[in-house]
């Protein structure tokens, strides 16, 4: 009985990780894009301040 429960748990874990991976990739891409946008905005603000 313990073996069966362990097998089902591992199978569920595998299935959940399989489903999560594309979502995680998308989230990472979104985070990276947001980070780049923030860096670009900060650089623009810095340039504007330097020019003032």
Verbal overview:
There is one protein chain. By secondary structure, the chain is mostly helical. The protein has one domain. The relative contact order is 0.07. The model has no long low-confidence stretch (mean pLDDT 84).
Short descriptors:
single chain; 52 residues; Phospholamban; mitochondrion; transmembrane helix
Q: Could you estimate the helical fraction of the residues in percent?
A: over 70%
Shape: rod-shaped
- Structural class comes to mainly alpha
How many angstroms separate the termini?
74 Å
According to DSSP, the number of beta strands is: 0
Report the uncertain regions: none
**Average pLDDT, all residues:** 84
Q: Summarize the helix and strand pattern as letters.
A: H
**Rg, Cα atoms, Å:** 22 Å
How large a portion of the residues is in β-strands, by DSSP E? under 5%
* Number of helices in the DSSP assignment: 1
Counted up, domains total 1
InterPro entries: PLB
Family: Belongs to the phospholamban family.
Subcellular location: Endoplasmic reticulum membrane; Mitochondrion membrane; Sarcoplasmic reticulum membrane
Protein name: Phospholamban
